[in-house]
Protein: Helix-turn-helix domain-containing protein
Amino acid sequence: MLRPRSKRVFLVEDIDSISAQVCVQADEDNTNRQFLTALLRATRYAVDHELTERQRQCFTKRYYEGRTVTEIAGELGLDCSTVSRHITLARQRIQSHARYCVFAYRNSLDGYSGNNRS
Structure:
């Protein structure tokens, strides 16, 4: 039995669109809007600059274009396991980058001086 596809992650184009929408949402306070906008920008930066070319290709095709691992493998001439590995490594790098952004944001609010460790 096939699992239903989960919701896709934001497309590169969606990140810009969401950033713009976040700025005009009246129900969120200014701090949350600024943080979400910064996090979306950081995520886009991570996709553009922190991934290898092959990771970026596989990640973009999978999540931004909605292609299956099998389709990507056929298009790029790779094994499905190789494509899956590239996608997993890309997600790990992006998540790591996002965690650092959250850490920096939270510690800027707490007045983190670099002398104490969390």
User: Anything to note?
Assistant: The longest helix spans residues 80-110. Residues 3-13, 15-27 have pLDDT under 50 and may be disordered.
